[in-house]
Design a protein that fits this description.
The chain is of the alpha+beta class. Helices cover about 40% and strands about 20% of the residues. The strands form five sheets. It has a five-stranded mixed β-sheet. A five-stranded antiparallel β-sheet has the order 11-12-18-14-15, with no helix packed on it. Helix 3 runs antiparallel to helix 5, helix 6 runs antiparallel to helix 7 and helix 7 packs antiparallel against helix 8. The mean pLDDT is about 80.
């Protein structure tokens, strides 16, 4: 039940007292009194303000508290991490702490900066609202007005300069861009003015801000984000490049991989859109080991693409320097209106059994060995460590069937009369786990970048599934954070 506080007038007047709901008071009843209504209460307020044991030291208010220090540390950490290889922190953590080796794009750490700067601003506003209104306005408002004035002057100056250049050049090839830039500066000036008015009004208020003020700030934020990003938002589906739509239909009907050659990363994405398997996948994640293997020899006839199971090459033009009558040369399959389709004669199956192994721990030496003329990747697999199984020579070729293949899951049935290594030409990446007949097995790295597993003689079912521990940890932390927000919201809404 809410507590109601009543403030009576001076002199024992029988007038009606003022009532205050305790839960809605910004601080205390005395903080909102004035001399006209309650001079005695005002004197009490002034007296209590002089009690140094009951008020905060102004110097202490200017010192950063512990929470502010946490926000500042997050800002510094997020920026330094986002620099990636251009800074020192990411490389240091990558080399010393194994979990940081899972960080795919260090630039995404900039979200810590965005979160911390927003939190720091909210924390500062909360502290400002907790100070005496007169002191707050005396200390903060001049600084805020100065900053806003400087920003407005800078935008107006940029607006004037851009307008002057536009007037001097119009009409010209660049005048259109200058006109759009003028519109951008004008919108920025309007946003600065509107946001400044709302922020100053919020800081001047002693009690709880009205709902319309919060709604206006949210609306201003949404409008700002939309004006910045609406040109990047597309609701219509993206059509793949014409080259992919011109490929023979049998390519999408057979589980064969192609190697995009000389195409941009955006053009490469069209393979999956038309149902064709590409060596580089969709929106390729450039895993260092795969890039090192694929780029080891800049030639579409390279043995690296044999072990990556590239049966065809798709290019935007002729590849005469790589095609011909040699045993390794590309063979022209089709001349397309937008490019060429070639076949690769030595590509190996996506999944295959191998019964000979060479162990080469060093990645550079392993890749060099793969490209040597006396090495046959169809008969020998290169591993970075000794396998925990004894290999045998089969009397008959192993029977192998890919029973299921979907994102994050591979199921392969093997029948072999001798133990061997099942090689799967898929990227070796942390989080992939392999089972043989439902029992966990060791996931091996073949040719520095793809997967392999020891398979005993006989009939077995091998399953690879993507099940990273980081996904579960992240989900648990997200659930914990959501629960904390819910509990904090409930606690803050309680009257006491």
């Amino acid at each position: 039940q809410d507590i109601v506080i009543q403030l009576h007038q001076d002199g024992g007047s029988g007038g009606r007292p003022r009532s205050f709901l305790a839960s809605s008071l910004p601080r205390t009843v005395l903080s909102s009194t004035n001399a006209a209504e309650s001079p005695t209460a005002l004197l009490a307020r002034r007296e209590m303000q002089s009690w140094r044991l009951l008020q905060l030291e102004p110097s202490a208010l200017r010192k950063p508290d512990r929470l502010g220090g946490v926000y500042l540390a997050l800002i510094a950490f997020g920026l330094l991490m986002a620099f990636g290889s251009y800074g020192f922190l990411y490389e240091l953590l990558y080399r010393t702490l194994p979990p940081f080796q899972l960080a795919r794009a260090p630039g995404r750490a900039a979200f810590l900066y965005t979160f911390a700067i927003s939190g720091l601003l909210g924390h500062a506003i909360s502290r400002w609202q907790g100070t005496d209104p007169e002191e707050r306005q005396a200390q903060i408002m001049p600084l805020l007005r100065g900053l806003l004035m400087a920003g407005a002057v800078a935008i107006i100056a940029a607006l004037a300069a851009t307008g002057a250049v536009f007037a001097a050049q119009h009409p010209s090839e660049t005048s259109g861009r200058l006109w759009h830039q003028l519109g951008g500066w004008s919108i920025a000036l309007i946003g600065l003015a509107g946001g400044s008015a709302l922020l100053i009004g919020l800081l001047k208020r002693e009690g709880k801000a009205p709902a319309w003020m919060g709604a206006a700030l949210v609306l201003l934020l949404v409008v700002d984000l939309w004006l910045f990003g609406f040109k990047l938002v597309r609701l219509d589906p993206l059509e793949p490049a014409a080259l992919w739509q011109e490929l023979p239909s049998e390519l999408s009907e057979r589980p064969l991989r192609v190697l995009p050659w000389g195409l941009s990363i955006f053009e490469q994405n069209g393979a999956m859109q038309v149902g064709v398997n590409s060596v580089f996948g969709y929106n390729a994640l450039e895993v260092a080991a795969v890039q090192g293997l694929a780029a080891s020899v800049p030639d579409p006839r390279s043995s690296a693409f044999d072990v990556l199971s590239a049966f065809g090459v798709v290019s935007g033009g002729p590849l005469d320097e790589f095609s011909g009558e040699g045993p390794d040369d590309l063979q022209l399959v089709s001349e397309l209106p937008s490019g060429r389709l070639y076949s690769r004669p030595n590509a190996l199956p996506v999944a295959r059994m191998v019964h000979q192994v060479e162990v080469i721990p060093d990645s550079t030496a392993a890749i060099d060995r793969l490209h040597q003329s006396d090495f046959d990747p169809a008969e020998i697999v290169i591993l970075n460590a000794d396998p925990a199984c004894a290999l045998g020579e089969p009397a008959d070729p192993a029977g192998l069937t890919i029973s299921a293949n979907r994102p994050g899951y591979w199921q392969i049935d093997v029948e072999s009369d001798a133990p061997g290594l099942l090689v799967l030409s898929e990227t070796q990446y942390p989080g992939w786990r392999v089972e043989i007949d439902g029992r966990p097995a060791e996931n091996l790295t073949a040719y520095t970048a793809i997967r392999a597993v020891c398979v005993p003689a006989g009939g077995h079912q091998i399953i690879w599934r993507y099940d990273p521990a980081s996904f579960k940890i992240g989900g648990a932390l997200s659930a914990l954070g959501l629960l904390s927000v819910i509990i904090s919201t409930i606690q803050l809404r309680r009257p006491n």
